[in-house]
Amino acid sequence: MLKSNMRILITGGAGFIGSHLVDRLMENEKNEVIVADNYFTGSKENLRKWIGHPRFELIRHDVTEPLLVEVDQIYHLACPASPIFYKYNPVKTIKTNVIGTLNMLGLAKRVGARILLTSTSEVYGDPLIHPQPETYWGNVNPIGVRSCYDEGKRVAETLMFDYHRQHGIEIRIARIFNTYGPRMNIDDGRVVSNFIAQAIRGEALTVQKPGTQTRSFCYVSDMVDGLIRLMGGENTGPINIGNPGEFTMTELAETVKELINPEVEIKMVENTPDDPRQRKPDITKAKELLGWEPKVKLREGLPLMEQDFRNRLGVPKK
């Protein structure tokens, strides 16, 4: 039985998904929320409305260093999650995934907290099974430019289960698929933010060749709902959390063009190595075990993200 007053730590809580999770958890007046973030990819701006709130605390902290706090739950989100950031500093990325997760598990062990890891669809690599169920072991290049992230998260999952089996730690693992929404870093190299920023600026939408590769996009409010359900439930996971609606990159570009700026052109550019050909979650487990499925359709979510990007770029809608 979880007690009514919860002290909740969110690592990476100043980031895109983390800050939306803070917003949702702060709605419950019984929650005290502590955010630890080093601002490598996160921003204090994302948490501005909570700074100074009596139930909220913000600590500038890098999870590769141990943290001493008394908490009941840990949402461990800290890690650069965009290719630009993890290719810019691959060593930092794998250290965050491995040492950061070790430190948070050590904290969970010491204080008896339940810990949720946001793992990733990247653990499936370039999948040979479609859509991907949680039982699929993946097809990952261990020495590629993305490996610091993909393999880092695979090791993090291993550590979670080792601490669970050896020390009885209560663990939850979410494998999250592509997520989009307000507060994404504008130039983070992820496809939805790229296309929306390009459309708003009137630039050509750059689709990586061949354009037939697919992704599934989950709106951030749906993602946060899934994470909270997983933390509150009785299943360790791993559980896929993502939107099974599948789009080719060309279809996504055409949708952004239609909704945001019909005048821009779509231009094909060279692809990055190890780019998975397809990605689509099998969310059977999330539906059955969490009663969760996404509600927000891509055509509903994109305009909400557009408004946020326009505000930050200072480009009003004509």
From TrEMBL:
* SUPFAM superfamilies named among the record's database cross-references: NAD(P)-binding Rossmann-fold domains
Q: Where is the NAD(P)-binding domain?
A: 9-303
Pathway terms, separated by semicolons:
Nucleotide-sugar biosynthesis; UDP-alpha-D-xylose biosynthesis; UDP-alpha-D-xylose from UDP-alpha-D-glucuronate: step 1/1
Q: Gene Ontology cellular component?
A: cytoplasm
Molecular function per GO: NAD+ binding; UDP-glucuronate decarboxylase activity
Which GO biological process entries does UniProt record here?
D-xylose metabolic process
What is the first-listed, main subcellular location in coarse terms?
A: cytoplasm
Q: What is its EC number?
A: 4.1.1.35
Give a Pfam family name.
GDP_Man_Dehyd
Q: Which co-factors does it depend on? A: NAD(+)
Where found, per UniProt? Cytoplasm
Q: What's the superkingdom here? A: Eukaryota
Swiss-Prot/TrEMBL catalytic activity: UDP-alpha-D-glucuronate + H(+) = UDP-alpha-D-xylose + CO2
Presence of keyword Cytoplasm: yes
Q: What does this protein do?
A: Catalyzes the NAD-dependent decarboxylation of UDP-glucuronic acid to UDP-xylose. Necessary for the biosynthesis of the core tetrasaccharide in glycosaminoglycan biosynthesis.
Its family remark reads:
Belongs to the NAD(P)-dependent epimerase/dehydratase family. UDP-glucuronic acid decarboxylase subfamily.
The protein's name is UDP-glucuronate decarboxylase
